[in-house]
Design brief:
Four copies of one chain form a homotetramer. Chain A is α/β, with parallel strands linked by helices. Chain A contains twelve helices and eleven strands. Chain A has helices at about 5-10, 15-25, 35-40, 45-55, 75-95, 110-130, 145-150, 160-170, 180-185, 190-195, 235-245, 265-280, and strands at about 1-5, 30, 60, 65, 100, 105, 135-140, 155, 175-180, 200-205, 250. Chain A has a nine-stranded parallel β-sheet with strand order 3-2-1-11-10-9-7-5-4. Chain A is globular and about 45 Å long. The first copy, chain A, starts with a strand and ends in a 6-residue tail after the last helix. Chains A and C meet through helix 5 and helix 6 of A and helix 5 and helix 6 of C.
Chain lengths: ~290, ~290, ~290, ~290
Amino acid sequence: MFSNLSAGALGLSLDHPTAIDLAAQHGFGGVDPDPGYFATLGGTAAVAEHAAAVRERGLEWGLAGLPVPLDAPAAEFREALVELPSALELLRAAGVTRIGTWIRPMHQARDHRTNWRLHVGRLALVAELLADAGIRLGLEYIGPKTFWSVERFPFIHSLRETRELIAETGASNVGLILDSYHWYTAGESAADLAGLTDADIVSVDINDARDDRERDEQQDLDRRLPFDTGVIDLESFMGAVRASGYSGPVKVEPFLKDLAERPVDEVLADVSARLERAVSGGSASA
Amino acid sequence: MFSNLSAGALGLSLDHPTAIDLAAQHGFGGVDPDPGYFATLGGTAAVAEHAAAVRERGLEWGLAGLPVPLDAPAAEFREALVELPSALELLRAAGVTRIGTWIRPMHQARDHRTNWRLHVGRLALVAELLADAGIRLGLEYIGPKTFWSVERFPFIHSLRETRELIAETGASNVGLILDSYHWYTAGESAADLAGLTDADIVSVDINDARDDRERDEQQDLDRRLPFDTGVIDLESFMGAVRASGYSGPVKVEPFLKDLAERPVDEVLADVSARLERAVSGGSASA
Amino acid sequence: MFSNLSAGALGLSLDHPTAIDLAAQHGFGGVDPDPGYFATLGGTAAVAEHAAAVRERGLEWGLAGLPVPLDAPAAEFREALVELPSALELLRAAGVTRIGTWIRPMHQARDHRTNWRLHVGRLALVAELLADAGIRLGLEYIGPKTFWSVERFPFIHSLRETRELIAETGASNVGLILDSYHWYTAGESAADLAGLTDADIVSVDINDARDDRERDEQQDLDRRLPFDTGVIDLESFMGAVRASGYSGPVKVEPFLKDLAERPVDEVLADVSARLERAVSGGSASA
Amino acid sequence: MFSNLSAGALGLSLDHPTAIDLAAQHGFGGVDPDPGYFATLGGTAAVAEHAAAVRERGLEWGLAGLPVPLDAPAAEFREALVELPSALELLRAAGVTRIGTWIRPMHQARDHRTNWRLHVGRLALVAELLADAGIRLGLEYIGPKTFWSVERFPFIHSLRETRELIAETGASNVGLILDSYHWYTAGESAADLAGLTDADIVSVDINDARDDRERDEQQDLDRRLPFDTGVIDLESFMGAVRASGYSGPVKVEPFLKDLAERPVDEVLADVSARLERAVSGGSASA
C-alpha cells in the first residue's frame, strides 16, 4: 500500500499539476487522478503521456470518483450511463484502475430491501461496464448513527452488509473502501476485517474521531486527523489492512475546514507523516 | 368486524370468566381466548364446551398470543416447537382461529438481511404448523422511531416490509395485525392500506397518540385511547379497514397505566363505545 | 379486452398500413404498433396524426416489443438504453401504452439466483424509464420443458415466479403477458390465475397445443391455433382472464409456417373468429 | 485429510464393530460413526469409552447422517427437531464433529426461490442446534442432469449455488460435501474449487463415471470406483482439495451393487488403495 494525496479529501483546492508536484515533494506514494484535467488534455494519447510523466515521478494513481449517481431517478442514472464510456476511456488511457463511491445509508421512501435491490441491479451493471475498461469499483459504507438514522429507512451501514452487497453484484471487480471512521462508528473491530484479501479492498481511508463525544454522537463531517485523539484504534485497523496484503492507496479525509487555512506545505507534511506512520506500521509520532 | 375485549391489552388483570362476563355485559362482539385458562379445564372436550358457552353469549374469539419466541436462540425456539402442538390442540378445540405476534423492529447484532432470513425461515415453519391446526398467524410491525432506532440494526418498521415478509413465508395463513398507532408513527396513509382484503388482515388495533409530541418523538408505550387527541386519523384508517372487508376483531391497546386504577365498568363502557364508533364508522361521540 | 392483429406473431409480412387495413376489415379490435414505421413518419406530430387515424378506424394499439435486450452483456444493454428515449418518444406520441418482452427461461452460465438479480435490476431500471413515458411493460414466461431444460441453469418458467419477479422490481407499471401455451406447458390451472386484476396483465396470447405429444414433450415453436385440438383448456384460461377484468389486447401466436402460405384474408378471417370466440366467451364454432 | 471407511456408502452391511476392525485392518484413517450402535451402548459414558477405543486404533470419525429431513412437511421436520438433542448428545459424547446431508436438486411444487427460502430457514435453525453441540454440517449438491431435470422446478445443482446457500444460513459451522461425481456432472473445473479453505469443506467423496455416456446422460446411482475409467479428472479435483488444506475424511460412494457380492477384504483393500492414492496425491496404480 502507499500513502496517497487526495486534495479534495483534504478540502484543498489544488489544480492537478500542483497536486502532483506537492505529492512528489512531500513524499506521497500516489495522487488522485483528476478526470476533469484529463478531459482538457485533448485525447487519450495526451492523457497517456501525462500519466507516464506522473509515474516517472514515482507516483501511483489513487482513486477516481464514480461519475454515476447510483440511487438517482432512472432517467438521471441512464444519462450518466450515456456519458460513462468517454470518461472511462480517459481513465483507462491514464492507467487508472480504481474508482470509488459511497453508499447513502438511508432513504426517506425506499425500505431496506427495495433499496438493496436497486443497488444490486445498478452496481452489477456499472461494475460490468467498468470491468470492460479494466477498472475496479470501491464501495464505502457510512457508519455514523447520526447519519443513517435521520430518514425513514436506514440502509447499509456496516462492513458485513457491504460485503453481502458486493457478493450479490456477482462482480469480481467490486470491493471495499475501508474508512477507519466508519469502522469505528459502526462499532466494528479487527475481527470484522479478518479474512479480507487485497482483492477485497479498493481503497483505504484513515481518520480519527473527536474525543468529547460518544460513538453514537459522532458526526460524519466532524472528524480528526489520524493519530490525533486516539479514539479510533488505528493500530488494529491498519494491522488488519496490512494482514490482508492490501496494495492500494491510503488517504486521509478529515473534513477539517481549518486545513485549507493553514500553509499547504505544513498541512501536507503533517498528513504525509501520519500516512507514513499508518502505512509503515511504525510508531513514530506524527 | 367486531369490537373485542382484550383485558391484557388494556392492562387489566381479569380472570377469563370475568372477562367473558364483562365483554358480554358491555356489548363487545368478542373476547380474547385465554390459553392458560383452557389448560386448566382438563382436556379438549371441556375446552370445546367452554367455547360453546362463550359463543352462546354472542361472543367471538379475538386473538391468542403466539407461544413461540420468533427470534430467540435456536435452542429456545426449538423448545417452544416441542410444546406447540399441545397448545394448538386446546386452541383448536376452542375454535380459536387467530394467533398473533409482533416483529421486534431492531437488533444489536443481526443486520436487516440476516434478521429477515431468520424471520422468513422461522415464520414459514411456524405458519405451516399453525395451518395444520386451522389457525391464522397475524404479524404486527412496530412504527415508532424511538423504538426501531435504538439498536445497531433497525429492522421491519413499515407495512410494506411486513407485506413482503409475509409473501416470502409462502404461507396463505399469515396476515397483518394493523395498529393505527404503528401506521401513524410509520408515516403511512390510507393509500398504504389500499388493496388489502379480509384475507390479509388477522387483527386490528386502534389507538390514538399524544398531541404534545412530534411523530418521531412518540413512544411505543405512551399512547392515548382512540378518538382522544385526534392526532391519528382514525376515520381514514378505519375507512381503509372497512374497504378491505375485514371480518375480525378490533381492539384497543393504549398502554395507559391509569386504566387499571379506574372502575372497570367505567373503563369498559368507555372502550366499548370507542370501538363501536370505530367499527360502525359512525360519528357518535365517544 | 379486444382481439388484436399482430402480423408478426402470425408470421405474416405485412407493412403497417396494410396491417391496419386488414385489422379493420376483419373486425379486429386492435393492431400492433410498428415503431419502425413510426420512425419513417418524420416526427412526433406525424406519428400522433397517424395514431389518430388508426383510432378513428376503431382500432386500439396492441403491444410493441421492448427494444432492450434484458440479459445481454452490459455494454449492449447500455447501448440500448442510450437509444431508448427516442423510441419511447414516438410510442408516446402514438399513444401506445403497452410494451412487452419474454424472459429467457435458462442460461448456460448464470445460476437461477444470479440471473434473477440481473433481471430484477435491469427490469426495475427499464420499467422506470417506461413509466416516465406512460408505458407499461409486460413480461412473458416460457413454459415448455423442452425449452427451459436445455442449458445448465433453468430460470423462470412459471406464473408464480414471474409474479414474484414483477413484485421485486417494485414497479407498478410491470405486469404479465399471459399465454395459454405457457400456462398449459407449465402445468398450471385456473387456480393459478385467480386473484389477478387488470393491473396485473399487459397482454394475453391464446394458442392451442399438438394433441400427439405429452405436455413435457411440447415444443415452443410448434403450436396450434386456439380451439384447434382442445388440448389446452381455453375456456378455463379465458374465464380467469375475464374474471380479472382485463381490458387489453388478445392475440394469437401459433408459430405455424403454413399460415404465410395461405391467402391472407382467409387466415385473418379464421384468426379473427377464433379471437372473437375467446374474447366474447361465446361457444360459436371457429 | 484421511481415507475413510463408510460401509453404507459402499453398499456393505457391516455392523459397527466389524467396520471398525476392517477399517483398522485395511489401513483406513477413519470410519463413519454409527449413531444406531451408539444408542445401544447405554449412555454417554459408554459412548465416550467406545470412541476412545476407536481412536486408540488410530481411527478418526468420518461423517454421520443428519437425522432431520430438511424439506419434509413442517410437522415431520418439527418431530425430528424434538428428537435431535438426544442424538446430538451421543454424537458429542463420541467426539463426532461432522454431520452431512444432501440437497434434493428439484421439486415438483416448490419453485427455486421458494425452495431456497425453505432451505435457508431450516438450515440456519439446524446449524445453530448443531453448533451448540460442537458439530459441523456438510451439504452435498447433486450434479447429474438426469436427476435435477425430472421434476417441475430444478433446484441447487452446482457448487456456486451451494456456497451462496451456505453463506445465507449465516452459520459458520456449515460447509460443503464435495463429491467428484457431482463436480464432474455439474460441468465444473478446478477453477470452481479455487479459494476454498479447510473451513469450507466438511467431507469429500471421490468417484469416477462411466465412460460410455455423455456427461448429461450420467445417472446418479450408476458410478465407477475412483481412477477406474478416468472420465473424471481426479488429479485436478484432489489437487484443489489438497490446496484448500482440507483435514477431513475422504470416502468412496460408487453405488456399485456388485461390491456387496465380492469378498469384503478384497473390496476394502481395493477401496483403501484408491483412497490412499487420492489422499497422498501419488500416482501409484490402484
